[in-house]
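Schema walkthrough. Field components (list of strings):
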Amino acid sequence: MVYKLKHAMAGLIAAGWTGTGMAAYRTDMQEPQTELARRVLGIHEMMLYICIVIFIAVFAVMFYSIYKHRKAAGHKAANFHENATVEIVWTVIPVLILIGMAWPATRVVLAQKDTRSEDLTIKITGYQWKWGYDYLQDGVSFYSSLATPRKQIEDFHGNAASKGEHYLLEVDNPLVVPAGKKVRLLLTANDVIHSWWVPAFAVKQDAIPGFVRDTWFKAEKPGIYRGQCTELCGKDHGFMPIVVEVKSQAEYAAWMDEQKKKAAANRDDPNKQWSLPELLAKGEQVYKANCIACHQENGKGIPGTFPALDGSKIAQGPVADHLHLVLNGKNAMPKWAQLSDSELAAVITYERNSWGNKAGDLLQPAAVKAARGK
Amino acid sequence: MTAAVHVHGHDDHSHAHPTGLMRWLTATNHKDIGTLYLWFAFSMFLVGGVLALMIRLELFRPGLQFFRPELFNQFTTLHGLIMVFGAIMPAFTGLANWMLPLMIGAPDMAFARMNNWSFWLLPPAALLLLISFAVPGGAAAAGWTMYAPLSTQMGMGMDLTIFAIHILGMSSIMGSINIVTTVLNMRAPGMTLMKMPMFAWTSLITAYLLIAVAPVLAGAVTMVLTDRHFGTSFFKAAGGGDPVMFQHIFWFFGHPEVYIMALPAFGVVSQIIPTFARKPLFGYHSMVYATSSIALLSFIVWGHHMFATGMPAAAQLFFMYATMLIAVPTGVKVFNWIATMWQGEMTFETPMLFAIGFVCLFTMGGFSGLMLAIVPADIQYQDTYFVVAHFHYVLVAGALFSLFAAAYYWMPKWTGHNYPEARGKLHFWWSMIAFNVTFFPMHFLGLAGMPRRIPDYATQFAGFNEVASLGAFAFGLAQVYFLFFVAIPTIRGKFGKAPDKPWEGVTTLEWEVPSPAPFHTWETPPDEKLVNELAARQHLH
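Field assembly_structure (string):
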């Protein structure tokens, strides 16, 4: 602990001295990247400046009075009270100022809410703790999870790896959109409420399980824009960033083609018989992408919060029960039916044959397909 | 009541009340119960403060150095719950208990035994919250707002929190019934409603708010409880429920709750500023009407906490306009305080310093609140550190500073001893500076894009997080200083005996009794002439 505090103090001093430290003291909003975001920034600045002016005016009066009307300065108390004119004035003037604020704000609200005439619709699903993106017109879908290695994050022993440039704001698969097109987002969630926020677009919309909400943005120029989940959604709420990559029209089209080809290649052949090493290799990937947040890399879970898989009755009992639990979820364990048949078969096989678990059996994708919906 | 019975009753009380532990367990005297409330609140303030420091410790540097995210979330949740329900609210109830009977010339609170019960419900509730850290799965980690369906996912700690909230709610309702009944029925002869001290007015209105909304919160958490254990689907979409409904119900409680913590603070400051300006409150009537308007408006603005949930434009606009309206009566209050100071004869003892600090910083919190009311801007601010900064300006520099102002103002009456003026001033300036060092940078963090309730953050937020953490530890230390170098030595009488009227400009009844206030006061109501004379000095007719 003392070591860590020293470490932190050294960092503080370094931050004060170096130029890179200055980037850590940003005092205003991020550069807006859409027409709407510029209007939102305009509203923010209008509010800020009006508030600062009123604050200075009102408290100048107060501090003048504090200075002049002190007993120490020999001032004698006057004895006035209640003055209808003054009281009407200081009620009416604020009302007028408020109307002046409300008018431009209302226009931006209506623009924000206008999701009509979109060029592209993307469905966004919040999961604990990653985002799912579905390009509804193109049939392309993928997950987007934190790409920052745990080694950079966990510093409990003072030996974390040094942090990358986009620490905690980087993902494996960013959302890719074309520049200059109005993108309509449909948001929902799989488990609890999440919120999708990209500050540069001034878009923030809760993703609510069981309901679909919509919002929109129209990015102007290619680039990479970053945001985070902004609704507390459990343990890894701080670790589900959002990265949007805006590409030019042509690059977007090329990217989309590639995605479609990949999707076709990855499509499951339900009749393929997988070997144990194949399933284990794929299962390990699926496990790392989806399961380690709770059950941990060593399968021991977190005692009292997330159960261990290593040595668990489920992972060593009948395979049908294991599959049922993963498909349907239980308590804090979400259902994982959104994974493909081969992914589920692989990860279950992996869990049954890893760490101390030696069930020895393997599950084929065909069996997963058959068990769905039961 | 006949004179004979009265005399008999009097003998009974002054000679036979229990001492030691039993005095406190069986307390029915409003001063004893007020003291219990205040010490309970201060203890909870320290516990909640330690949780806050754990949060700031983890956020000192990017990366996870001390706590795993699940424990961090428990800290943020319990910090909020303990500060709101364990520290601020009981402190104001304690203040009302101690001061209301003295200020309106009543011998005690209306329901003395219920008063005992409403206090003694608090420690078990606090215990439930604290032991929840030790149960499997730990304490509730869904935030103090306990949004479903995250709260339906939690372990046993959530159930303990729900029961704690039920108990705290019962306590609040009973405390409020007591305040309403006392203020409405037990005022001294001649003290009409419009001659009451402002603190009595704000306590009365606050009590009504609490009676209205405490059951709403109880309903919300009970629905979470039945969703968790009895197969209901109030907030589960899969069973036909609606997760957003929880937020509507919660904030229908939650927004009036904000004023439950703010209105008594307005009352305290409205007592203190006229005293030290040696000049009556400028617009007593408009203050009463402004307080009532704020209370009424607080019931129709809850949606401004939910702009990002995706409500229709018409609803967003309604809640935006309604929320902006609150700026009008709040402005009236601030203008009144300043007009009270204007042309006064001001001195700046510690209570006045805290009151002026309150007016400045609460107004800043009010301005950021106005900014948050503006939907398009709120979409950017929502759930970021900008919001964290905003509500700490309102609740720490607002509610807490007014409580310190009250403590310094009335400490001579409570203890019969002077407090150390220089140390009080040091406490004020230390708190004032540390508070701003902690919370002002949070505005910047929020604008730059840092979400709230995260245990780790991108490196671009590192600078201000370090500043905020250092400020937080300095602020915490200032409160330890208050306890050991101000409060305890004052109680022990280290700084001499206080006069009955320690302040020059006082015009309220509590200063007409000796210091320290005897165990029983106003057994015979104050003379109507005295009441009228004091009212006349405040220009109340």
